[in-house]
Amino acid sequence: MSTPILEARGLVKTFGHVVGLAGVDLELHAGEVLAIIGDNGAGKSTLIKCLSGAYTPDAGQILVEGKPVEFHRPDDARKAGIETVYQTLAVSPALDIASNLFLGREQRLPGVRGSVFRMLDKKGMRDRAKQQVEDLGISTLQSMTQAVENLSGGQRQAVAVARAAAFGSKVVILDEPTAALGVRESAQVLQLVRDLRDQGMPVILISHDMPQVFEVADRIQIQRLGRRAAVITPKTHTPQEAVAIMTGAMVVT
After folding, report:
1. For strand 203-206 and strand 33-37, is the pairing parallel, antiparallel, or unpaired?
2. CATH 3.10.180.10 at 6-247, yes or no
3. pLDDT for 16-63, tens place per residue?
C-alpha cells in the first residue's frame, strides 16, 4: 500500500491522571474517507486536536507523506496542509461568504495599493471564492456577498467546508459536521464529503451518527478508552458490530 498522507504512531496524551490517548495509531490514505467513532472519553477529540495542532502529544509521532512533523499550534498543521472544521464552525456571521473563506488569509491588491495602503483585493477574493464553491459543486451558495448570518445551518457548514478545502492541500478533518443539521442539510454535507474524496482529498470524519458513517466512510477507526480498538470497513462489519466494539462487547483481534 502507498505511503499514508497522514499517519500517527503511538500517540500519547495525558491530562494529569486522565489518559486521553494511550498509544494510538492512525493511517489516512489519498482519496479516502476515514471515520473515527467511539463513546465519550474514547479519545476522538484528543486525537483530532493532536493531528490539527491544538494539542501537542506527550509521546508518539505524526507523519505527513512519510515525513515526521511536529505541531505546536494549529498554524503548524495548516502550513503542513491540514485543515480542520470543528463542530463550533468558527465562522464570522457578520462577514460575507467570500470574507469568511479568506478569514485570516486575506489577499491584498497588487502593487502599492496592497503593500503600502494595505487595500484588500475584495473582487479577487469573491471571484476565487465563487470558483472554489463551484468546484466543490455547492449549489446552495449563490452570492459570495451574502452575509453568513443569513444562511441556514447547512449553508454555514458548506462555507466552513469550502474554506477547509480551499486551503487544506493534503487533509481535511471534519468534526461532527452534521450534528446540528436536519436530514436534507445533512445529506448535502455528506455529498460534500464524497465530492472532496472524489477530487482526491483525504477526509477524516468524526461522527456519532452510525448510519452516516457507514454511508460515506471507506474505513472506520473505532476508539475505546483512549486506544484504537479496531479498524473496520462498511463491507466487513455492520453498524451493530461497530457499536459492540465501541462498548467492549466484541473484540477484534
Report:
1. parallel
2. no
3. 999 999 999 999 999 999 999 999 889 999 999 999 999 999 999 999
